[in-house]
Amino acid sequence: MILTGVMAAILVTMALALVRATLGPTLFDRILALNMFGTKTVLLIAVVCFTIDRTDFLDLALAYALMNFIGVVAVLRLFLHKGFGEPEPDEEGASS
Amino acid sequence: MITDVLSGICLIAGAFFALTGGIGLIRLPDFFTRMHGAALTDTLGAWLILLGLMIAAGFTLVTVKLIMIGLLLALTSPTATHALARSAWEHGRKPWMLPEGEDVPTDG
Amino acid sequence: MSRAVKHSIALFVFLAVAWLLWSGFWDNPLLLSLGAVSCLGVLLLVRRMRLVDAEGVPLKILPKLVVYAPWLIWEVVKANVDVARRILSPRMPISPCLFEVKASQSDDLGRVIYANSITLTPGTISVHVEGDVILVHALTKEAADGVEEAEMDRRVTGLAG
User: Which of A2, A56, A76, A79 to mutate to test the interface with B (most CBs of B within 10 A)?
Assistant: First the structure.
């Protein structure tokens, strides 16, 4: 009963995060909303594990937490450096 | 019985903080202040929900997994938040401030 | 015993305990040996990346965390209640501000712990770190005053030196 309520609250929070991701106005707001959406997904998976009594699904929550973090950092890197693992723009300018 | 009540209290409080963070994400005026709202759901909202589940699970391996998830969230969320704030700052986004000469709004 | 060997053994023990707790297999010889092999593989990879040192395996800090972590959690709880109250109140009494604080820690690890502790506490976010100066964005003047009192700075310095 309480678990259902908590699931509903988490889903509402995810919906609010989606609203912020849609409204923007900047890219950073959208990434922030995405990050929060990911954290809520981890919690939702954990709560769902307990409602359906399949606690071995908790591994999925951990995997999702890792993916969420790496995803956010990857998007930021892609946006800041326009690529993954390339030299910094300054170094490029200095060598050429 | 007592564990049920305790875990229920933790879960409801966690859901409350998560929802408050969501409301903050919508209500707050600019990107930098919105990060504080998101921090709310990432810290106490997540921890209390996980703590409630831990109390419900009792002292088993499931509790250990929940602790690991909590630790991981506590380590990664400030790092991701800082990376986001830093790149926003380096892209020249300036935080919203109270208009000059205006007092902090108070209630009542 | 050299420091590198000590750190490697500590990391291996940590990985093995994590593997055992995570998998829950205690009595299957095949799976246990596979787990040992994967722990060794990770150890070799991390050594190749030259991450096995006092920063990658902070043995000295771990015991002191027992004191610091509960204090930090209590600070986070207090800040959470404050920020939640401000978000939910109809007129939103917030006064965002930016300011710089000096981190008195001597190494990078200490500064990372300090900056992350600031970010973890709702109401304050470390925006930029340059040398030992941290640029902090605070949601309210009160939260900013809390950081400038530098109690967290002192505690992290005691933790990481």
Answer: A2
Q: Is A39's pLDDT higher than 50? A: yes
Angle at C124 between CA C99 and CA A81, to 5 degrees: 80
Q: From the list A28, A29, A40, which residue is nearest B41 (CB)?
A: A40
Q: Which residue of B has its CA nearest to C87?
A: B24
ipTM above 0.90, yes or no: no
In whole angstroms, what is the distance from residue A67 CA to residue C19 CA?
A: 19
Residues of B in contact with C92 (CB under 8 A): 27-28, 105
Instruction: Determine how many CB atoms are found less than 10 A away from the CB of residue A66.
Output: 12
pLDDT tens for chain B, 108 residues long, are 888 888 899 999 999 999 988 888 888 888 888 888 888 888 888 899 999 988 888 888 888 888 888 888 888 888 888 888 888 888 777 777 766 656 666 554
Chain B residues in contact with A58 by the CB 8 A cut-off are 62, 65-66, 69
Residue A23: which domain range? 2-95
Q: State the pairing for strand pair C124-130/C97-102.
A: unpaired
The shortest C-alpha distance from A57 to chain B (Å) reads: 10
Phi, psi of C96 (to 5 degrees): -60, 145
Is pLDDT of A90 > 70?
no
Number of domains within chain A: 1
